[in-house]
Write a structure and sequence with these properties.
The protein is of the alpha/beta class. Helix content is 41%, strand content 21%. A five-stranded parallel β-sheet has the order 4-3-5-6-7, sandwiched between helices. Strands 10-9-8-14 form a four-stranded mixed β-sheet, covered by helices on one side. Strands 11-13-12 form a three-stranded antiparallel β-sheet. The relative contact order is 0.11. The N terminus is likely disordered.
Length: 264
């Protein structure tokens, strides 16, 4: 249920903000056409609270995309290129702590501000250990949220990662810590992107969703995906001295053995 503080904040913001620049897409994302101060993604399953936050942050100069859960977050990151994510923890489908882990693994420069009803010290500890930048508890004032987001966005400076690989989605290539870039096909790019976002385990059903061919049996798709993984391993192996880049977890899925930062 939305908190009384946020319902009041939403009423105030609704009276102030013009929604002429808003475009609601069939994917469920909401984008503001006018240029903003920073790009923000809100992930909040409570519709009233989500709308109130959109209204206030857009009025305060942010460009905002809003989601009700983390299922389409990867697509939203690629489309919106956010400086920060405002994230609830109690979400359907995937817990917010797991979302923080996979976002920070693939996009370490994106700030994460948690806004949650969880008040236990354990929840705060787990969020910070997962990579959260700031932990706010509901109800938090609208102005406080804006100030925190601006501060987190301003911190977004390049990180020095001497063992980090960079996946360039636009250029269809991956850059090792040392040496020349490795060219990738579109499917190889998708594979590495999914692995980078999956943290510790990428299950086969997810690969089948994004790489499988419609009308083809699951077994045939599995063989083709395994061949794709083998080709990517062959490309990366020389830069690892023959070491593993992708590990098979029997009867579970796959895991990336290198640190990859994604640049969309």
């Amino acid at each position: 249920m939305p908190t009384p503080g946020y319902r009041a904040a939403r009423t105030s913001a609704s009276e102030l903000v013009s929604l002429k620049g808003v475009h609601k897409l069939s994917s469920g994302l909401v984008y503001f056409a006018e240029l903003g101060l920073f790009n923000i993604i809100i992930v909040e399953d409570n519709a009233d609270l989500r709308q109130g936050l959109e209204d206030h942050l857009s009025q305060d100069g942010f460009r905002v995309a809003a989601l009700e859960d983390g299922e389409r977050l990867s697509n939203a990151i690629n489309a919106n290129k956010p400086d920060a994510i405002l994230l609830d923890l109690n979400l359907p489908h995937e817990d917010g702590i797991e979302i923080i882990k996979r976002v920070k693994l693939a996009y370490p420069r994106i700030g994460v501000v948690v806004l949650t009803a969880r008040v236990r010290n354990l929840d705060r500890k787990e969020a910070y250990e997962a990579g959260a930048d700031v932990f706010l508890t509901k109800p938090a004032g609208a102005e406080e949220i804006s100030i925190v987001l601006k501060n987190v966005c301003r911190r977004g400076v390049p990180l020095a990662q001497d063992k980090e690989w960079v996946l360039d989605l636009r250029g269809h290539r991956i850059l090792p810590p040392l040496g020349l870039a490795i060219e990738l096909t579109g499917r190889e790019c998708i594979l590495l992107h999914e692995l980078a976002l999956s943290a510790h385990l990428l299950r086969f059903y997810r690969l089948n969703e994004v790489l499988g061919e419609a009308g083809v049996s699951e077994q045939v798709n599995k063989v083709r995906i395994e061949q794709l993984i083998s080709r990517v391993r062959q490309k990366l192996s020389p830069r690892l001295g023959g070491g593993a880049s992708i590990k098979v977890l029997r009867s579970q899925g796959y895991r990336l053995c290198i640190t990859v930062r994604v640049e969309a």
